[in-house]
Amino acid sequence: MKMKNKLPPLNNLNTFSIAAKHLSFSKAAEELSITQAAVSQQIRLLEQRLGFDLFHRLHRQLKLTEQGVALQNPINIALDRISSALEKLNKDSKKSILTISILPSLAIKWLIPRLTDFNQKYPDIDIHINAHIGLSNFKNDDLSISFGHQHHVNLEAKFLMDEDMFLVASPKLLTGKYNFDKLNDLKHHTLIHDSVDCVFESYGIFIEPDWDDFSKLLKVDIKDNKALTLSQSHLVLQAAITGQGVAIARSILVADDLDSGQLVKIYQNKVIKSPGYHLVYPKSHSNNKNIQKFEQWILSICH
After folding, report:
1. CA distance 55 to 50
2. For residue 199, what pLDDT is reported?
3. Domains 10-92 and 98-297 belong to one CATH topology
4. 287 burial type by CB count under 10 A (0-12 exposed, 13-18 middle, 19+ buried)
5. Buried/exposed code over 95-115 (b: 16+ C-beta within 10 A; e: otherwise)
6. Torsion-angle region of residue 134: left (phi > 0), alpha (psi -120 to 50) or beta?
7. Range 10-92 has CATH code 1.10.10.10
């Protein structure tokens, strides 16, 4: 029988490839989730189309004919290429997702306001913010913007920015009797702070300064001051903006509020250094194109 010019149906070629792999119509039927009779029919139609047999049908056994052997590898290669091309097209048709682990306050006060620029430059990448105070295990996160960093053999860490810790208050508090002209004026104000222990975020190398540290720095006894405790740094800053009291602020988180005049820095020279922030990701993620693009972007806005 003379073979026609047109190629056989792709479905029949795929059935042949699987049957040739197993040398069994029944196993091919299981893999394809069709009946053995359907596999046999497709192979028979393919053989009729080609004009020669592909299998020797022995008792309870299949064996490839000479023509079957000659066709098996080229068909497998062609099917693999088609499958790879379709998979690539399917991936390219979907937006990429980049998941970032970050402290909630840093996300709200610093990263999110700056993401418009990244989104404009890379519209094909969707950012997923995973805001939490713990360390990332990178099972669900692609990278982390971390407070402090300790060297780890499996992690790549890029320094982003320094940070100072100092005291801030609403301009409203500067108009009262205790307007911070004297260090002891602090004794008459509510002390605002968050309840997050950043020793966990900084891999154990730094504990976030608290009011005891600033009491020692300013040499002011504030043990009898009224206190207001909130669960996150951005809530602390919001309370300070509304005039609830004095807050310990991180320079990175409070920068926009200082620029807008909603908060002012008091006791200008009384500063405690923090370990700053790092971009961290597993070394195994180094070839991730999305991470490379984000790294290039964030380093450009930090340096």
Report:
1. 13
2. 41
3. no
4. exposed
5. eeebbbbbbbbbbbbbbeeee
6. beta
7. yes
What dihedral angle (degrees, nearest 10) is formed by the CA atoms of 101, 106, 107, 109? 180
Q: Residue 270: CA atoms inside 13 Å, Cβ hemisphere, count?
A: 22
| Coil/strand/helix, residue 244 | coil
> Which stretches within the chain are classed as H helix?
10-22, 25-32, 36-50, 66-92, 104-106, 112-121, 211-218, 233-241, 251-260, 289-302
Rounded CA separation 266/218 (Å): 12
* DSSP label at residue 169: E
SS3 sequence of 39-54: HHHHHHHHHHHHCCCC
In the prediction, which pLDDT does 204 show?
Answer: 47
Average pLDDT along the chain, 303 residues, taken 10 residues at a time = 65 90 89 88 90 88 90 90 78 74 89 94 92 80 83 85 93 91 94 68 56 93 92 89 94 92 94 88 90 95 86
pLDDT at position 200 is 38
Beta 246-250 vs 155-169: how paired, if at all?
A: antiparallel
User: What is the reported pLDDT for 32?
Assistant: 85
Separation between Cα atoms, residue 251 and residue 198, nearest integer Å: 16
Instruction: Domain 98-297: state its class.
Output: alpha beta
The strand pairing partners of 76, in sequence order, are: none
In this prediction, residue 152 carries a pLDDT of 76
CA distances from 261 to 93, 163, 250 (A): 45, 20, 16
- Domain spans in the chain, listed from the N-terminal domain onward: 10-92, 98-297
